[in-house]
Amino acid sequence: MDKNLRICIVGGGPAGLSAGMYLEKKGYENYTILERLDRVGGKCWSPTYNGRRYEMGAIMGVPSYYAVHDVEEFCGITHDGPKLNRNYKNKQGKVIEPFEPKKNILKIPRLLKMKKQVKKLGELLETKYKGYDLNGHRGVAEGRYEGFSQASAKREPVKGENPNLKDLCLPFKEFCKLNGVDLIQDIWIGPFTSFGYGYFDEIPAAYVLKYLDFQTCMNFVKINLWTWKNGTQYIWEQLNDHLKHPARLNSKIEKVERKDGKVYVTVNGAVEEYDKIIVTAPLYIPNKRTDGQVGMVDYFDAREDEKELFSKIDYERYDVLAVETKPEDHPEISYYVFENMTPETMGHLMVYYRRWKDTKDQVITTYALRKHKGTPEIPYEECKKTVLEDLKIMKNPASNVVNEWSVYYFPHVFSEDYAAGWYDKVEAMQDKYDTFYAGEIMSFGDMDETAEYSRELVERFF
Ligand SMILES: Cc1cc2nc3c(=O)[nH]c(=O)nc-3n(C[C@H](O)[C@H](O)[C@H](O)COP(=O)(O)OP(=O)(O)OC[C@H]3O[C@@H](n4cnc5c(N)ncnc54)[C@H](O)[C@@H]3O)c2cc1C
Fold this sequence. Notes:
single chain, alpha+beta, seven-stranded mixed sheet, four-stranded parallel sheet, 14 helices, 29% helix, globular, binds flavin-adenine dinucleotide
């Protein structure tokens, strides 16, 4: 493509900013990033409290976060944050060690079986499901894989046929049953459901395994994880500072019209002309949100195929609270509550995070889900009340709520639409209306998958 193209990027989160970085690296310097808020980072939001930054959004990475590593290199920064650690409680607030055989004599047969099944899954993913862990979802529903290998930082292009990949369209629970590895869910659930990505009976296996590929899941188990002292938002603030064209904050996009090979964007009352537009912001939001966020179909001259496909997108209702406790009530470590990660215990506290170990004058953050497919959504205030009650049960009562966020989280489609080729239809529409679709829905809702998708988009089309 012509290196002088005028490219508009909607959204200044990881996907939008890294699209800018990869375009710039390839010699495209005529790009503009429009961000609706007064800050960059999107769901990497790290406010300051008592002089230190805490995490309202993204917290951690793993060593295979190659795109995030590209950003670190570009900016000369590194993952220098506090070491993560964790423990477990049951829903009565008692500390437990669910994976320690000596502490669970009666569960030894189950734990042994689980260990065998983890090994089996590892082997299946290497063989039967070869090609499962590429970024994005191209070809999966048709039994193909196509993309860039995530096995090393080189990310070589790979392509092939594998009809078994169609199994990834199934909800993860069914996928595990089909392969005789039901018990591995006891491990995968920790970094999946408690991180807000939904329940295994509703979410297609493709999302679970592309994010929690075998190595990544083992990194979670071994706590081989990255954090950033100044928060994950700092990564993207740094990137923004290092770009030739930092994001234009407080950009309210009122209208986007695509005609005669041009893209006209009305932003803060003025019309701007571009050649291409990359959308990293939500494509569709099924219900009206109190934070005023809308999907692209609401402000674009959306075409019938865009409306039809994007109306299939749903997202998770994931709530984060930042609370203070009295020093004597401060948890000594972060805790996971596995019993609260089921659809039946929806709305309860699933995990709470103590970030700074050397002081008790910092907030702790709590996480809860309040939506499950086919069940009525739990109202926000009710969920908040339940979580605060749960903290009392955990013997870490909150004295004050410092910050709260009901976040638009993990956009995805369900198995039926996934199997009907949703991704291949959307991929076939890339550039059809001088428009590219990127961000979380196109890969997965984590920092690296979204940044990586932007890298691949630039690699494929520019
Ligand atoms: C509580 C929580 C915990 C998480 N934990 C982790 C973790 O530990 N590790 C990890 O890797 N990931 C984690 N994530 C996920 C990660 O933060 C996201 O997947 C990532 O930020 C997605 O990047 P994105 O650019 O696609 O979208 P976003 O981060 O959502 O950014 C989109 C940007 O677009 C802007 N925007 C929206 N609409 C418009 C519009 N109309 N015009 C202009 N701009 C617009 C938004 O304001 C935002 O800045 C977590 C997220 C949350 C909320």
